[in-house]
Design a protein that fits this description.
eleven-stranded mixed beta sheet; Rossmann fold; 12 helices; GMP Synthetase, Chain A, domain 3; 447 residues; 30% helix; alpha/beta; 19 strands
């Protein structure tokens, strides 16, 4: 029986793999890891050179042996790109075996190319199908794909919906008016966009005279990704209340897949596709591997990719993992991502993430939920200020809104902002058609 012909009431897309006992799952990972390391060493000039210099061999005996291998990161990708060949020294196959490439956004430097062989691409889409099925998508669903198609690794994820039998509606990153027209015309049951855009689109719908709950009643599920907000309960609830939908967070990165992990119905972290990706959490300073529940930098190792294996790739995401079985019955590790390493700031010895601020603002009914953070140095100390918007139609004095939000931030983060600035609805100017820019870092060491 083809996977897409599964009964609609079947809970798992690939039950055998998704519910493997931890011991068997790790045996499978070790088998794949041995093959991946050997392939990378024999076919990548970079890995052979780096591992020889580090004195490590691809002939490993246990998963723990991976800890001996050096890390890679975005800079590694940039340094190797175009060296010796079009895709560079990290690539393990000739260019004529590459059938698809995505690129990173380039927001932190030169965009990096992410190549896929045909099998890499098929594994990628099978992973997407599993994550879609996990949220409840079935062959009778209409899936409107509102993600950027232009070199963005999330663009092809629509194929994963089609693999399981759903109707794929390839709309992409179009202006809000056009997207609302498509939603009204085609009446999708599923959509995918960023958290900020899911919220903005609802506001645009209201401005155009629509009632998001009634005029788009066909929509039952919103998948969101690309920003930390998807894992913040208050943000998810705001979107759910606005559209009257279920909201699920997905996580991906151009270096691996469009989506590598996603929520199940219990929404207690994001299940990563562990039969294709091995995950570690490491100490930011020492690189030491940390235990479950300990916060650090999330690091990924591909287990099946051949075009460009990524071995111990430091993602820049800060969070922790939970390997205990989930209530849903899946045994694969759950990610809890708190934010980006480059957006974490320390105030009075307390680590603060933009997601901490978002949690507070989204929970405050006197604001629209929009916010912007400015971090700066003053008198040799780091300070932060937060800008928010009063709720639509509110006549609450600006200073009262500021005082309340300031107190809520102090309670939740442990450190009071230097200032809270209050704007009227729509005047803050952070809303964007897709990803919103909410974090401004003016610290001198970033100049």
């Amino acid at each position: 029986m083809a996977l897409k012909d599964l009964p609609y009431d079947e809970k798992y897309y690939d039950a055998e793999v998704e519910t493997l006992p931890r011991e068997q799952l790790e045996e499978l990972q070790l088998k794949y890891l041995k093959e991946e390391l050997k392939f990378a060493y024999e076919n990548s000039p970079y890995y052979k050179r780096a591992w020889d210099e580090a004195g490590v061999s691809p002939d490993i005996e246990s998963l723990k042996d991976l800890e001996k291998f050096p890390f890679t990161d975005k800079q590694t990708e940039r340094d190797c790109q175009g060296v010796g060949s079009f895709f560079g020294e990290l690539c393990c196959v000739p260019e004529d075996e590459v059938v698809y490439m995505a690129t990173s956004s380039g927001s932190t430097g030169v965009p990096t190319m992410s190549p896929f062989t045909q099998k890499d691409f098929e594994d990628f889409q099978h992973a997407q199908s599993r994550l879609f099925w996990q949220t409840g998508m079935r062959p009778n669903d209409r899936y409107l794909h509102a993600m950027n198609m232009a070199l963005y690794v999330g663009g092809p994820d629509v194929i994963g919906a089609q693999e399981l039998g759903a109707l794929g509606i390839w709309v992409g990153a179009v202006p809000s008016a056009r997207l609302l027209w498509a939603m009204k015309q085609y009446q999708p049951t599923y959509m995918w966009s960023s958290p900020s855009y899911a919220w903005l689109l609802g506001q645009k719908a209201i401005e155009q005279g629509y009632d998001p709950k009634k005029d788009f009643a066909s929509l039952k599920t919103f998948i969101i990704s690309g920003e930390p907000g998807g894992s913040i309960e208050s943000t998810r609830k705001a979107i759910e209340d606005l559209w009257d939908v279920k909201v699920y967070d997905f996580f991906g990165l151009s270096d691996i897949y469009g989506a590598c992990a996603g929520m199940c119905e219990y929404k207690d972290g994001l299940h990563i596709i562990e039969d294709q990706i091995l995950v570690e959490v490491v100490d930011l300073q020492t690189g030491e591997v940390l235990g479950d529940g300990e916060q650090g930098e999330i690091t990924y190792t591909t287990l099946l990719k051949h075009a460009r294996p990524n071995i111990r790739f430091r993602s820049g995401d800060i969070g922790w993992i939970d390997r205990s079985p989930c209530k849903c019955g899946r045994t694969h590790t759950r990610l809890h991502i708190q934010g980006r390493k480059d957006e974490m700031f320390i105030v009075s010895a307390v680590n603060v993430f933009p997601s901490d601020v978002e949690y507070v603002v989204r929970n405050d009914e006197g604001t629209t939920g929009e916010y912007r953070i400015r971090v700066y140095d003053e008198n040799f100390t780091t300070k932060y200020e937060v800008s928010v918007e009063r709720a639509f139609g509110s006549d609450e004095p600006y200073d009262e809104v500021a005082k309340r939000v300031e107190g809520e931030l102090k309670t939740h983060t442990g450190v009071r902002p230097a200032k809270v600035i209050v704007y009227d609805t729509g005047k803050l100017g952070v809303s964007a058609e897709h990803k919103a820019k909410r974090f401004i870092d003016e610290r001198k060491h970033n100049a």
